[in-house]
Amino acid sequence: xxxxxxxxxxxxxxxxxxxxxxxxxxxxxxxxxxxxxxxxxxxxxxxxxxxxxxxxxxxxxxxxxxxxxxxxxxxxxxxxxxxxxxxxxxxxxxxxxxxxxxxxxxxxxxxxxxxxxxxxxxxxxxxxxxxxxxxxxxxxxxxxxxxxxxxxxxxx
Length: 156
Prior knowledge:
This protein has about 160 residues and is of the alpha+beta class. The chain has helices at about 1-20, 30-35, 60-70, 75-85, 120-135; strands spanning about 40-45, 50, 90-100, 105-115, 145-155.
C-alpha cells in the first residue's frame, strides 16, 4: 500500500510540475530508452518514488536496490543544495537509469526523464550522475547485467 501511495505521490508531483510551468528537457534517444526498458512493476526506490526493477522476478532484490538508493539520498541532495545556493528558484526531478554489472558496479547511468524549473539543472544532473556512477550496488549471484531506474525529486 505504501508503494502505491508513493507511486501516486511521484506521479502527482510530476504532473503538477508540468502544470506549474516546469519545462521538460530533451527526450533521451531511442537507444538509451531501449537500454533501460523493463517490463517490471514500479517500486519504491526511496530517493523519490518510482523505481523499476529488471525482470529477474526477485522482489527482495528490488527492495535491496531501493534500500541502497535510500541510504545514499544525502549525496544526491547535496548535489541539489550546492547548486540551489546560487539558483534559489531551482526545483525539479530526474529519473536516473542505471545498468549494473553482475558485481554491482554501475556500467552506465543516464537521465531518462527530467523536469526542472530555474537555472542550474544541468549542474545538478551532472553531479547526480557522477555520484551514481561511483556507487557499487549489492551484487546478485549469477545475475546478468541488471537495469534499474529511480526518480529523484528536488523541492525548495
